[in-house]
């Protein structure tokens, strides 16, 4: 088709409202109508012209705006809430695939993104997807997308991960992506979809993170944050400008127009709301129909037997001594410290491996004597006390269903044997099963009742809302793990109150972690969303939770020091928690009265 | 301005596909989500003759042969059908029959006065052209927007007929069974000037939308200019620092030269020469930058604004000759015990063509100021409320 005549016209309308900028040109091209006029002299058939008109009108129509992949989702894996479906719909169809998902904490932003990605997958507009998250959350994203939406992503912590140009669906920690090693590869690629979790961490335009996102090339982008505003209103400008450059004009214009002089409140809200509505979705808790049942926490601390205490002391001494000599062994030492409070049998396996398979010579004597101590133990306190809990359950809850979590396979096996010998119906669940086997196990547990003893492989597994009693036989030193365990049973769809039993031995690291840390931040009452905002903050300050615990444990000079150290860590956590709460309040204050969704009224 | 796009739902896809394929002479057998379509050898279509299986929506294909195709809004097969059908007959003729329902004007629809009956008496046939325009709006900062707009113009009076455009949209909806009235009678020479008028009208109708996009694009250009300006300011600052560092190094060297002797003096002279040339370079760059800054970086601004400029493309896609009738309509009105007959100019597909005024105050009757009384001529709501 040849180009017809062109014309330029100048606008006479006056844009005083946002004053201060020049207008760009508008070039109007009228395409030639020769072909169309030529067809006037051609003969057509009855009915054809109407069909041509209808075809043209369909071609121009918004391609079907319904979420068609929803029907493919397994209702048992994910229960979608109305506000989540709305958000996914608006992000995709009303915001043209560039949206800031800013629901309040705990309303399921990950689910919204899952739905969006599922739909894009269905429509085949997702050849390459990059999800950037804080390091802590990468694996959790991977598990959720897989279990709830059947979407397989490679995570940068997986063994199979090669580089950012080797896979098409990648979940990575944002800091890995921006590292010197990967940065160039990440930037070289044209991504179809970019997802940025905890987007408020890129608020500062002078950081490497901001620079990375700014330079990334992508067609669609979904940014997630519960707190778009961290410190000042400029944060909102920065995050939104990454997604939709120019939506707010220049920084100066934004400041003069939308922010009052003390930087604390927004002015010209209506105009701001109009603009934000083009890019941001914020659901508030009170507007949704989420209703969780109660959660009761029963933490039981037991006196270890004299022999158990002796073993614990020996292992702790060994760990402290070995670590002071060689910090490279940190992971294995950490493992021993965790195993000693889980079960002697778990500990035994690791020590034997070190002694006989890896020919550990430097501390052979010490390790041998620990093995001797293990042999001497005839009563394993936690296992005995576990019987009290399951027995009570057998009498009081439907089919006596209890799920017991442990971190270690050896502990798991021993408990299974013990429970079976007491006449309980038992089921085992661990990472060694294939996924169809896992499904089978969960089904059997539901049908037969009894006790399911599981490792943390379950955290990436199924939903067990048909069970409402959970026992933490040992405790991961990572609060997210704990919440993931609880999340298996205490989730949308759980109709009964949930009971969580935590088991710990007195005067051990577990007691410290439980009493001083987890209870201080109310871990057992936080939702995953709330927890992740606390932990991400912590991580922001460069700390890994597990490392913190371990370092404090091995470096403390005395019992008193240790207590103080843990208290100090609790104070830090409490501070992060308060900060997270304050931010949440601040954001709801700022956006108060903002109807950021579309309404039919 | 009327938007002519149709939402592409699965049911729209089904309906269009079935009707189109049947019009080509194909037969279709339905079973759940699978349609078996037989395409005869003689059919003029890009679809190959023989049997094809269409799998509707999200249904899963039974086999994976070349003759199995998906049928949903984005499926390649459906898109192919649309392209083919759209190109088949872009011009033609439709007529709006006079027996279709008489349209009551808004000032009467929102009134308490009851319409007892309405009778249309057509006096003469009229012809209009209705054109569908594809409009593409593109900028670097906004998403490309594709719109479909419809404009109707009377062929003789060249009057703009927005109501007729709306009737056209109804007439050509997917639910409509209306068949074409055959080939258009208009010649190219007759159609050309009407097309020009329609082009102007479609652009006028886009004004508000373009204004908004224009404003946003301008804002985006402006932030880019601002960013560039800040970057250059930064650069000027750095150069100034280099400049003054060099200047003090040169004066240090000058002191050394004055005080030194022999080799060290020669060495210092050599260094000073190098530094001076560097100093001159920076000086030049700095002056140039300052000059550009003082004049507001005109080239860069122009380049940025050019890049952000709006590109609007308007393409006429179909042209339909629409026959409609003009004449008079008699509305028999009733309010309480009073009745009255009002006769007004009327056109099929365009409704009442006359404005009617209040007998008392001469104010135009409208949706906001509807007819309130017929006891003394036609009285408007405003007059009634003031009594």
Describe this structure in words.
- The complex is a heterodimer of chains A (601) and B (387).
- Chain A is built from 23 helices and 15 strands.
- Chain A has 601 residues and is of the alpha/beta class.
- Chain A has a 7-stranded parallel β-sheet with strand order 5-6-4-7-8-3-9, with helices on both faces.
- In chain A, helix 20 packs parallel to helix 23.
- Chain A is elongated and about 100 Å long.
- The two termini of chain A are 46 Å apart.
- Chain B is an alpha+beta fold.
- Among the domains of chain B are: 87 residues, no CATH class; 95 residues.
- Chain B contains 9 helices and 13 strands.
- In chain B, strand 12 and strand 13 form a beta hairpin.
- The longest helix of chain B is centred in the middle third of the chain and has 53 residues.
- At the A-B interface, strand 2, helix 1, helix 2 and helix 10 of A face helix 1, helix 2, strand 6, strand 8 and helix 5 of B.
- Strand 2 of chain A pairs parallel with strand 9 of chain B, so a sheet runs across the interface.
């Amino acid at each position: 088709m040849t180009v017809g005549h062109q014309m330029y016209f100048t606008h006479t309308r006056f844009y005083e409202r946002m004053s201060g900028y020049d207008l760009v040109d508008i070039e109007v091209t009228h395409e030639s109508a020769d072909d169309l006029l030529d067809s006037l002299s051609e003969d057509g058939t009855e009915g054809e012209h109407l069909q041509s008109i209808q075809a043209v009108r369909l071609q121009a129509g918004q391609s079907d705006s319904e979420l068609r992949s929803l029907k493919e989702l397994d209702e048992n894996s994910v229960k979608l809430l109305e506000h989540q479906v709305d958000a996914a719909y608006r992000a995709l169809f009303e915001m043209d695939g560039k949206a800031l998902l800013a629901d309040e904490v705990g309303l399921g932003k990950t689910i919204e993104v899952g739905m969006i990605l599922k739909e894009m997958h269905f429509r085949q507009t997702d050849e390459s997807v990059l999800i950037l998250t804080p390091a802590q959350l990468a694996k959790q994203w991977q598990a959720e997308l897989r279990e709830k939406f059947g979407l397989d992503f490679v995570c940068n912590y997986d063994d199979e991960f090669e580089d950012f140009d080797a896979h098409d669906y990648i979940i990575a920690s944002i800091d890995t992506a921006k590292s010197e090693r990967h940065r160039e590869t990440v930037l070289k690629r044209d991504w179809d979809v970019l997802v940025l979790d905890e987007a408020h961490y890129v608020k500062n335009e002078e950081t490497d993170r901001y620079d990375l996102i700014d330079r990334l090339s992508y067609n669609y982008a979904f940014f997630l944050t519960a707190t778009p505003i961290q410190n000042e209103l400029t944060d909102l400008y920065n995050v939104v400008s990454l997604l939709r450059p120019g939506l707010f004009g220049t920084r100066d214009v934004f400041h003069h127009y939308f922010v009052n002089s003390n930087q604390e409140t927004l002015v010209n809200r209506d105009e701001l709301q109009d603009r934000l509505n083009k890019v941001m979705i914020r659901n508030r808790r009170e507007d949704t129909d989420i209703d969780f049942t109660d959660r009761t926490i029963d933490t039981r601390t037991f006196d270890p037997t004299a022999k158990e205490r002796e073993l614990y002391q020996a292992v702790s001494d060994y760990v402290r001594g070995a670590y002071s000599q060689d910090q490279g062994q940190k992971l294995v030492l950490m493992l021993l410290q965790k195993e000693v409070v889980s079960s002697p049998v778990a500990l035994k396996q690791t020590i034997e491996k070190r002694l006989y398979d890896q020919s550990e010579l430097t501390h052979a004597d010490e390790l041998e004597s620990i093995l001797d101590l293990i042999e001497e133990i005839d009563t394993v306190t936690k296992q005995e006390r576990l019987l009290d809990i399951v027995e009570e359950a057998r009498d009081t809850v439907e089919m006596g269903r209890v799920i017991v979590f442990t971190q270690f396979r050896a502990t798991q096996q021993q408990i299974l044997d013990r429970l079976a010998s007491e006449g309980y119906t038992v089921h085992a669940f661990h990472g060694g099963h294939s996924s169809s086997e896992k499904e089978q196990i969960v089904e059997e547990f539901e049908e037969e009742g009894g006790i399911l003893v599981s490792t943390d492989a379950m955290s990436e597994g199924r939903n067990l809302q048909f069970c409402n009693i959970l026992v933490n036989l040992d405790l991961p030193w990572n609060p997210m793990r704990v919440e993931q365990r609880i999340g298996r049973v205490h989730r949308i769809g759980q109709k009964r109150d949930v009971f969580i039993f935590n088991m710990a031995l007195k005067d051990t690291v577990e007691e410290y972690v439980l009493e001083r840390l987890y209870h201080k931040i109310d871990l057992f009452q936080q939702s995953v969303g709330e927890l992740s905002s606390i932990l991400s903050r912590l991580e922001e300050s460069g700390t890994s939770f597990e490392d913190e615990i371990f370092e404090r444990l091995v470096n403390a000079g005395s019992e008193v020091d240790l207590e103080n150290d843990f208290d100090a860590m609790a104070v830090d956590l409490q501070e992060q928690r308060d900060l997270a709460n304050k931010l949440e309040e601040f954001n709801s204050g700022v956006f108060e009265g903002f109807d950021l969704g579309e309404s039919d009224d | 301005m009327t938007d002519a796009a149709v939402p592409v739902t699965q049911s729209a896809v089904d309906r269009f596909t079935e009707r189109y394929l049947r019009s080509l002479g194909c037969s279709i057998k339905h079973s759940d989500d699978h349609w078996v379509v037989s395409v005869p050898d003689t059919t003029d279509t890009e679809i190959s003759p023989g049997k094809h299986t269409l799998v509707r929506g999200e249904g899963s294909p039974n086999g994976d042969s070349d003759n199995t195709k998906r049928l949903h809004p984005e499926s390649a097969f459906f898109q192919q059908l649309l392209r083919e059908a759209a190109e088949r007959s872009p011009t033609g003729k439709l007529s709006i029959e006079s027996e279709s329902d008489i349209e009551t004007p808004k000032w009467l629809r929102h009134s308490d006065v009851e319409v007892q009956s309405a009778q249309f008496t057509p006096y003469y046939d009229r012809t209009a052209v209705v054109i569908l325009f594809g409009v593409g709006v593109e900028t670097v900062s906004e998403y490309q927007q594709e719109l479909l707009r419809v404009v109707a113009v009377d062929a003789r009076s060249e009057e703009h007929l927005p109501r007729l455009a709306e009737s056209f949209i109804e007439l050509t909806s997917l639910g409509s069974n209306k068949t074409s009235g055959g080939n258009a009678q208009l010649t190219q020479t007759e159609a050309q000037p009407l097309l020009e008028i329609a082009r102007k009208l479609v652009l006028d109708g886009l004004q508000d939308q373009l204004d908004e996009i224009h404003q946003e694009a301008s804002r985006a250009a402006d932030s880019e200019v601002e960013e560039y300006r800040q970057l250059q300011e930064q650069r000027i600052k750095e150069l100034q620092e280099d400049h003054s560092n060099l200047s003090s190094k040169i004066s240090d060297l000058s002191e050394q030269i004055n005080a030194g002797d022999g080799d060290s003096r020669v060495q210092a002279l050599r260094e000073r020469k190098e530094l001076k040339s560097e100093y001159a370079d920076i000086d030049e760059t700095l002056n140039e930058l300052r000059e550009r800054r003082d004049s507001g970086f005109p080239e860069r601004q122009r380049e940025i604004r050019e890049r952000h400029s709006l590109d609007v493309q308007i393409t006429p896609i179909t042209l339909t000759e629409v026959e409609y009738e003009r004449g008079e309509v008699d509305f028999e009105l009733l309010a309480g015990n009073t009745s009255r007959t009002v006769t007004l100019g009327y056109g099929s597909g365009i409704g009442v063509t006359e404005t009617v005024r209040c007998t008392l105050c001469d104010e135009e009757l409208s949706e906001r100021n509807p007819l309130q009384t017929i006891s003394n001529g036609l009285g408007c709501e405003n007059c009634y409320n003031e009594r």
